[in-house]
Amino acid sequence: MITDALDSWTPRDPAQRMLLAEYRAFVTASGTAAVDRSLAPEHLTASCFVLTPDHSRVLLCFHRKGQFWVQLGGHLEPGDRSLSEAAYREAREEGGIADLRPRGTLPADVHRHELSASFGRCRTHWDVGFVAYASASSVPVVSAESEQVAWFGVDALPAGTTDDFAVRLRTVLAEIG
Q: Which end of the chain has fewer CB atoms at under 10 Å, N or C?
């Protein structure tokens, strides 16, 4: 099942463990609607924190709809067989870096967030975050979903980053050690 990673992962962070329990309950209660955005305004999404191997830089995109800096990611597509596959596909599409090295099939975080009207029918994303690595010399390419894609120091995030992104990034970095 596409959500198997949620059952296989045990986060280090106690708050992440509590939120993951809510994710599991959401998936059980929602069934297919949890992974198909056409069926419900609340659904899972998959994102990817693209980092340099030394964890000093993160690749961010300036999201066209949201008008903020955020990690790469998006909706699951019918051909996606797992959450990690969806996250890595989205990262390649949105970041334009073909030689991403996935960290694995287990998440690095979960993050539920409400969305503004600019996101159309979508109202809540139950995001599952994964990690991939790329060389800092990799040149990102802007996609149709982003206005800009760029590398930033993990301690020097750009203005316009979502309010809770720095905390989320620190949680991811702690999870992957």
A: C
Q: Which two tokens stand for residue 21?
A: 């329990």
Helices (H), 9-154: 14-30, 83-95
Q: Which domain holds residue 134?
A: 4-176
Q: Around Cβ 24, how many Cβ atoms within 10 Å?
A: 13
CA torsion 62-67-72-75 (nearest 10°) is -150
What token pair was written down for 120?
């159309």
- Is the pTM higher than 0.85? The answer reads yes
Query: What domain count does the chain have?
Result: 1
Query: pLDDT per position in the chain (177 positions), as tens?
Result: 799 999 999 999 999 999 999 999 999 999 999 999 888 888 899 999 999 999 999 999 998 777 889 999 999 999 999 999 999 999 999 999 989 999 999 999 999 987 666 667 777 889 999 999 999 999 999 987 778 999 999 999 999 998 899 999 999 999 999
